[in-house]
Amino acid sequence: MKNIVLVSASPKINEKSVSKELLVMAGSHIISDLFSKVFIDVRKSILTKNLAKDFETLAKADVLIFSFPLYYFCMPGILTRFLADYHNYFNSRENAKKHVKVYAMVNCGFPEPEINLEAVRVIKSFSQHINAEFRFGILIGGGSMMIEAKEAPFMKKPILKLKSAFSSIAADIQHEDSTTMDSIYIGVDFPLYRRIYHYMGGRGWITLARKNGLKKKDLYKKPYCLKTHPRITL
C-alpha cells in the first residue's frame, strides 16, 4: 500500500482554512483501500514541536500533496522554513524514499489563478532537491469562493473543474509510468466577483487607516515623493 501525505500550510490560527478544506476535498478523491493517507498541518507541527515525527512520515511517503495560500506572491513563511528543515533532515537520512511524486495546490484571493505560478515553481524546485518528481500544480484563483460560494450558480463551472483536477491527481497517483502533465488553472470567471474583490480590497485599506487615526485622503499622500525646488540662478 502506498503512503500519501497531504500537507496543509495555512498560517491561520482560529480562522477557517481554505487550504485545509481543499486538501480534504482532494483526499476524498483518493481511494482509501489502495492508499494510506496521512494529514500534516505545518502550523500545528511547528507549535507542538512535532517536526521530527512529521519529517519521518514525509520520508516514508510515496506521494506528497501540498496545499497552501499565496502569501506576498509566494509561499507562507512557515512552509518555507518547514521545507528547508525537511531538506536538511532528508539529506541526513540514508533510507528516505526517492522518486516520490509531488503535487502542489495553491489558492489566492485574486481572480487570476496564474498569480500562483511562482509559488508552484518553488515547490517544483524543492522536489528536485529531494530527488522527487514534481508532477503538476493546481492553481486556484478566488480560493475562498470555492468554499464559501460553491453552491452558487456562477460557481458551477469552477467547482466542476476543481473536482476534475482532484480526480486528475488521484488518477496520476495510480499510474507508475505517468506522462508529463501541465499545471491546471482554475479561476472565477465572474465579472461581478472581480469588482467586489477590488471594492472590498479598497475598503480594507480605508478601515485600517481609520483604526490608525487617518482619513481616506491620507492614503493618497506621497511622503517620499521628491519635491521640485525653484531653480537658483547665480
Please tag this protein with its features:
single chain; 234 residues; alpha/beta; Rossmann fold; six-stranded parallel β-sheet; 8 helices; 42% helix; 17% strand; globular
Structural commentary:
With 234 residues, the protein is of the alpha/beta class. It contains eight helices and six strands; from the N terminus they run E-H-E-H-H-E-H-E-H-E-H-H-E-H. It has helices at 18-28, 42-47, 51-59, 77-92, 117-129, 145-148, 156-174, 191-211; strands at residues 2-8, 35-41, 63-69, 101-107, 133-140, 184-186. Helix 1 links the parallel strand 1 and strand 2 (35-41). The longest helix is centred in the last third of the chain and has 21 residues, at 191-211. The protein is globular. The mean pLDDT is 86.
Task: Describe, in short, the structure shown.
With 234 residues, the chain is α/β, with parallel strands linked by helices.
The overall pLDDT, averaged over residues, is 86
Count of domains: 2
Give me the oligomer status.
single chain
Task: Tell me about the largest β-sheet.
Answer: 6 strands, parallel
Read across the widest sheet, the strand sequence of neighbours is 2-1-3-4-5-6
CATH class of the largest domain: Alpha Beta
Q: Topology as H/E string?
A: EHEHHEHEHEHHEH
- Strand-residue proportion: 15-25%
- C-alpha Rg, in Å? 21 Å
The helix-and-strand class reads: alpha/beta
